[in-house]
## 1
Amino acid sequence: MLHHLQMERDSCDFGLEELVDDPPHSSEFPLPTPASSIISEHEFSCHCCYDILVNPTTLNCGHNFCRHCLALWWESSHKNECPECREKWEGFPKVNILLRDAVDKLFSEVVYRRRAEIQANPKISRSLLAFQRYGDTIGRSRTNQHKGAGFFFSGVLTALTCVAVMLLVYHWSSGEVEQQDLLISKHVSRWTTEEVISWLEHLGPWAQLYREALQQENVNGRLLQMLSDEELSKPPYNIENQAHRRAVLAELDRVKALGVKPPQNLWEYKAVNAGKSLFLLYALKSSPRLTLFYLYLFDYSETFLPFLHTCCPAITHTDQTVEGSFVLDTQLEPSWRQWAEFLVKYFLLPYQLIAEFAWDWLAVHYWTSRFIIVNAMLLSVLEGCALWRLWTRDRIRTLPSRMWSHLWKIVSQGFAFALLWPFVPQFVCNCLFYWALYFNPIINIDLVVQQLMHPETQAL
């Protein structure tokens, strides 16, 4: 019995030794292999484009997508939900850094190729910028960035808005513009003595010297048209200064030619040319170069020449006073120096021309001129930021196509305005005029702050 048990133990030991010495064949019991050898591209593919993940972004539901695929989906659907399971995400999705590094190491060549293709696609770049700007907006709202600099700028915007509202109420309630309408709409032959004196005072402070003489002689509109250089130089008028007489006679010739007093400030120009002033106000803001070119072609003598002489004044001779050259020089042909200065500013700094024109009328339109100057500076900054983004992102070659599309847009809007203008109520036109004049600078302040604080998130 014992001998039999010993033989069975020996046979078991012999079987174990065979198993140790001769392991099973690999086809029957395969050995485990390294994990990297069984990883496939399918496990790291995006469920939108079905390609290797680039900047993988993980949503709350756990699904991963290429960041540009998610941006395109968000831009087209305008929904904060997963493209696969439609579960809404909260906050702003972030790039999964761990997954991104793993994909970059495993499929470096494919990721490099795909990133180059993404950067070369302008549509994808715009979508990514818009998506990032949306995320920045959410981030700013959640981190209380209204404090500090944001609180300061909001206070400035509030103060400027109050000033704009007060100016708007003042111009609507005051009768200054209505009083000036009498001279710019009433024929000169029907002017009274008070209206003739009012016309003279508009020529400048120097004209106050001759106010009393005209009042004593009861010079009305009919008599004003009969005055000549010889009569003005003799008693009772006694305008001995030759430059003053030339200024009075030159302005009198314009009154005779037009039959009414020509507009000499912004409000008078608006009263005479309501539609044109509104068109110029919006056109100068959107496209100053095309607007000035339009004035050169279609309104050369009445608007373009005075604008050019104001922004690029001619060199005044020592024997010629400012009063004498005020009216005369605005109708003369510009010199080559004036044209050279104007063209340089026209191509490089068109908004500076508008600011210089408003600066010249600072004494007449105190707050309005300041609003125009500030708005011109802000628009110059916005234009410079746009050109800088084109240059830094290697898209300067797209500038001709952008200019052509901008030209087509402005021309089409101009034709639409010309067709719809007769049917627009005057009250609506006044609202649009004052909005562009006083509220657009306030809006542009916020745009400039966004450009300077977050330049990388601004879409072209």
## 2
Amino acid sequence: MNGVEEAITQAHHQQWARVVAILTRRFGDLDVAEEAAAEAFATAVERWPADGVPTNLAAWLITTANRKAIDRLRREHKRDEKHQEAQMLSADVPPEPLGAIDDDRLRLIFTCCHPALALESRVALTLRLVGGLTVPEIARAFLVQEAAMGRRITRAKAKIKAARIPYRVPAAQELPGRVSAVLAVLFLIFNEGYLASSPHTDPVRHELTAEAIRLARLLRVLLPQDGEVAGLLALMLLTEARRTARVSATGELVTLEEQDRGGWDPALIADGHQLVRERLAAAAAGVAPGRYQILAAINAVHTDARDVRDTDWSQIVALYDQLVRIDDSPIITLNRAIAVAELDGPDVALAAVERLENKLTGYHPYHATRADLLRRLGRSQESRVAYDRAIALTANTAESAYLIRRRNQLR
């Protein structure tokens, strides 16, 4: 990649959401903003190799996109009000102050993740308008036909318009609930990359985990005081640090205890630990941690151990106890039981796991966890049945390969 191509790629990563956000506020139309931003970047691809890379990338892209939007509105004679509005705007608009740009970008994130939209629509809009992914890229990411994904995004934008969903940052009293909706979207994107839900893709999808981390970093810049934003970013970083060690050369999942810890990314771990320490300091000052912060702290304990035998399981169980008090979901209880098995033994853990059967009967990690505990207790036949159930429910190819091997090792 030459210098100009690299500059365009970097500009797309850093400026796409900013350009779309500014044009959305200026013209009040997501379609206009999205198309004009895409045309501005297409113009950059054509002109920068010949003209050189502009000194102020943001100003060049915003000005170019603004002109493209005005040109489009002038061509659309049916949109008289928009045409008149466009005529009132200068084609040469100076860049906005950084604070205003950041506010616009934050408005865009909250608009894309509005709870009035279906969750899959929030994910698609966030990846398209905030992340800048193309419709084909999003369709491939979630194994949907390109035309169907295009219709999904179009319907979501139409609903925003029809329902008059406001393009704004929520009021102070609304912010906690709305931030949690944004974080849920980013976490869903990350989890699909961390452990793909389809057998037709790579088992670990770096392009999705990287995009989720990039968007979480952006949100962290925009909401630096929000503890759960910091917690989710730390959780993603500490999980991503282990990515290259998670699948073997033969395509089999490598569990945490079997991973080569020398292959973990020390820079990501350092960044994640720093965020966790900041949140621990806040907790010491009386600010109660949320779900993502506690999950990040659990991952910090795991990544702090140079060897699996050095893991502080008592601290992990204590953190899960804290988490259960704010989120007593059966999945959290299942994960706590896995830690309890290391501290109090597989028999104690199995008793806790089996109490979840009616709630997690279709959840393959439940059966995989139960199979492993039964194996450790020497109950091989029951373990085999549980492994078979887990394998039947697992779509991820690396995870299936691991479970099949463990089942076949039973006597």
## 3
Amino acid sequence: MAFSEVVGSLNSTKKLINLLRGWPNTSLLPNHLLDRASHNALSNKAVAFSGMLYGPDAGDTRLRKNVASWLTNFYQPPKPIPLERITITGGASQNLACLLQVFTDPVYTRNVWIVSPSYMLAFRIFDDSGFHRKLRAVPEDDEGIDIDFLKKEIRRSEDRARADGNNEPQMKPDRPWGKVYRHVIYAVPTFSNPSFKTMTLRRREELVRVAREYDALIITDDVYDFLQWPSSLKAQTLSLDKAVLPRVVDVDRYLDGGAERDGADGFGNAASNGSFSKICGPGLRTGWVEGTEKLAYGVSQTGSSRSGGAPSQLTATFVAETLESGELQRYVLETLQPAYGSRYRTMIAAINKELIPLGVRLPQMDRDVVGGYFIWLTLPPPLKGTVVAQRAKDEENLVVAQGEIFEVPGDTEHAHFENDLRVCFAWEQEEKLAEGIERLARVIRSMQNDKGGNDQTMQHATGEGAKDFW
């Protein structure tokens, strides 16, 4: 069953609380902004006609310009971001597929290195590009990606490639707008889905250096960066108008002479995947990619874009309108950040009260700034996430995500999460969040009091009922 179609217990009299679904609550969708923006765009013939026709490969020029300005103000790089570094996409997932089409070869590209636990729906995208047997998990530590592990494993991968004579692309022809990288590294560096962690600046810099050394393309989903607030539960404001850290693509732009330094090929080693799904609405299917000018242009030359122009051309004109007026930026700062910050506070307060005394642990709780949609929970031993999730569904009509679904398929030796859960504070009504955590605490407490219950439930979960988890 698709994750968006999760159902709870069919027998419980309690109302379903869904802490798995990673969607924005409908009350936080800025329909009024899109209503006004669409009217303005469609009332202007110059905008409407171009919006209704095939768009330029790189996307609506006005949206590219406005996104570049918005990112410049938020991330405050040493120099403004030019629109040439931006290509409009059909969202982060669609663009991940485009990046793989243009910049990888399923034979020559040695591995896809995935910071794990990872966004589970990305795995299929890598599979579709021929990397099913090349996905490798990279564990995290307290600073984010375990860089020593990554370096060691990439060296081994390179040794195998040399031994196999894998020295040039096998499936992709030479194209002036693209190149084929030897490795791909995939991460969600800030407020990660699902681990809730933020990669430190030191690790971001180390990651860029590794990517340059081994000709890797780092693809980062930077979709939660704008949803941030102080971690302190006593902070007076829940709005922050500047990014907590530079993105990996910013680090690549400036570190040690930058992505376009002398001797480099100009494509760089980082691509930032941005999306309006979390800050405006996933139904827009509109986002952007930022990289060097050569990389951004290469994405625009993907066959599907060359055939019909940039995806989401019409909705791109609506989003451009909201950015040009400043309404979307104000909505993020004045509505979304406080709303999600309040939801986070509600859930964290409940976790501190109900779960921490039971031995549940959370990562990186010493940060000054947190954000995103999710919180990662590590259960006290010997509890297993699969068992807790099943009993929460059966006994409390509560749906949570078990840690194992975020494991990289086929590579769990160094990154396995059978003792973990992910909960989301974005979808359910805020007043349901504390109740959801209270229900989860009842399940954990019951299992701790019943030493045999864990084994019995595991036997049930791995039998006929296992297929009904999601």
## 4
Amino acid sequence: MAILVRTACWAPRPLLPVLQTWDLDPRRWVRALRRSPVKVFPSGQVVDRKPGQGKQPRKAAAEASPHAQPLKQPSPAPQSQTPSTWEQSGLRYDKALPGDKRLSSVMTIVKSRPFREKQGKILLEGRRLIADALKAGAVPKVFFFSRVEYLKELPVDKLKGVSLIKVKFEDIKEWSDLVTPQGIMGIFAKPDHVKMTFPETQLRHSLPLLLICDNLRDPGNLGTILRSAAGAGCSKVLLLKGCVDAWEPKVLRAGMGAHFQVPIINNLDWETVPNYLPNDTRVYVADNCGLYAQAQISSKAIDHGWVCDRQLSKFHKYEEEEEEDLETGASEGWLPELEVQSYDLDWTEAPAAVVIGGETHGVSLESLQLAESTGGKRLLIPVVPGVDSLNSAMAASILLFEGRRQLRLRVEHLSRDRRDR
């Protein structure tokens, strides 16, 4: 009976669970509403958003929108060239350790003329001179430098295959010929004027005017003359045997880059000079001294002392040799008689070559013979009484720029005649 009573009192439970009183706490529901949604990645990984990220700025929301156009990223600023960039370009440099003798061994021999002529290598010092050489097509072999920044100023493509050795500045200063060393030295192959690339402006302003250097022994004078030749627009410079080497460091320093602006042909014999002269070239000798020059100029010039007698002994020696040759039947010592004319008179009607002699030995007999065979003359630069002669570099500059002035006037006259026609 008791069992029947219990069965009769049983009632079915509801399908939905009955909420307990603790589930109706409003604070928990408020917290549930404030909870940030979670982000589900395609892989199934769930990441809760951090507090404070519920709101996105407008710019961020626009970027997150699938319809928003991507913003252009600013291009990164170009970075300065670093050794890592050099490594990508295949460039490496070696750092000289204490006791490294490579710099001293090279400097000991490269400054001697026999080594330059035998090995065909020269020394260039300074960033500007090295840059001019590279621009002209000179081939570098070794660079010694104290700071990597000095190499960064040079074109990278010109440095491939070159030995780059970083040394202390004190070592460069010890071997430098400059008062203020620039921290970089370069060993180059001796340039060939045929293979070099001279500046386009220099070639465009080149004139039918050549310079022949005879017995120039002073490095400073030769460097200055080369600089004047480049400035005047000479088409070529010929150096005879007996001149100082054009690639000597002192000549390079005085030339200020003129070696890479005008073709220079070095160490020539007089027999080969005509091969380098254009057709119909007339050779003029810059020589105020000499027995025959004194005899041919006007008496007015003699009265004003425009002729020096410093080299009369040399020409007297030529006369004595001539008399001896006449007695023996030989005639190699004859002295050509060249007409003397003032330097400011017209002498550029044909391609002209000017011979400049050294201050100690003057011009050679071969130069006078060449001038006579081409119909040339002596060019006289008058000086006041008491002045022995002009410096070779000064005389060369006066004559070259006078020749440039005459050629310019000639071109202007031709242009004017064409317009009148």
